[in-house]
Amino acid sequence: MPDTSVSKGEVEYYKMLLDTCISNIQRKIVGKTRELQIILATLFSQGHVLLEGVPGTAKTLMAKALAVTLGLEFKRIQATPDLLPSDVIGVNIYDPRTGGFVFRKGPVFTNILLFDEVNRAPPKTQSALLEAMQERQVTVEGETYKLPEPFLVIATMNPVETEGTFPLPEAQVDRFLARVMIGYPSIDETIEILKRFDEIAVLEDLKPVLDKDTVLRLMALSKRIYVDENIMKYIATIVEATRRHPMVKLGASPRGAIALLLLSRGLALIQGRSYVIPDDVKQVAYAALSHRLILRSEARLSKLTPESIIDDVLEKVEPP
Description:
By secondary structure, this protein is of the alpha/beta class. The protein has helices at 8-25, 33-44, 59-70, 85-89, 123-135, 170-173, 187-195, 197-200, 212-222, 229-244, 254-270, 278-289, 297-301, 306-316; strands at residues 49-52, 74-78, 90-95, 100-105, 112-116, 137-140, 143-146, 152-157, 178-181, 248-250, 294-295. The longest helix is centred in the first third of the chain and has 18 residues, at 8-25. It is globular, with a radius of gyration of 20 Å. One of its GO terms (molecular function) is ATP hydrolysis activity. Keywords: ATP-binding, Nucleotide-binding. InterPro entries: AAA+_ATPase (IPR003593), ATPase_AAA-3 (IPR011703), CbbQ/NirQ/NorQ/GpvN (IPR050764), ChlI/MoxR_AAA_lid (IPR041628), P-loop_NTPase (IPR027417).
């Protein structure tokens, strides 16, 4: 049986690299350390992330700075109501020189894809993106094309705009491993943004810290982070508690439990540990579960949120 243990020296070396990555991104993004850690943990877990926040909170800049720092290819799609699936995945075009059709790849063929305002895209286009996210491949006229590795979709959604948007079905939202809320900066952070605006606005001076091969090694290493059976029981109990909560109509599915496990392993790696502790599970609980809970109408009338439900569950479930 192969040795799957991770040495202390190995995780400490990669922690040093990842600390440098986050510091490099924070040359352009003020604060947001925990949000960046969750996005990195999602990447190492081979998942995708949904960023929610009002306009102007640096969601696009964060995605671009992340791609540059990791040495990965980056592309962006601005969702609009007339966006077609072919605008995302590509299309066969006629080549007069050969008399046949050739496949022209769409922007989905990249390492980090920023899908801006995903809920502005029509349902058919959202479905095309879903296959790419889930299967890491696209199918055009019966031909299947593999996507490059690594592949991370960062989809943004504006929680306050409703006009001209298409609601994301629960099944599609559930495909995102993590949901990260990008809130307003504090007063001190806003002052820092104003002081550094001229420097922040330009990405040309940002240099890669990692490369594609190192990112792939980190993805493989994340799978080897040790998770004790008591931690797995803790995760399962948290997920079960969301289903039994009186204010929850639909609790987290088994995919929610898997998200908790994967993100906990990714966060442990980022923090320089070869094993998961209960605090890792708690710190990723919002990201892993908040978009998977459907609350009862009385919960909304009481102004309860998925985050407040998760707080209640974490308070009641005893950690190991």
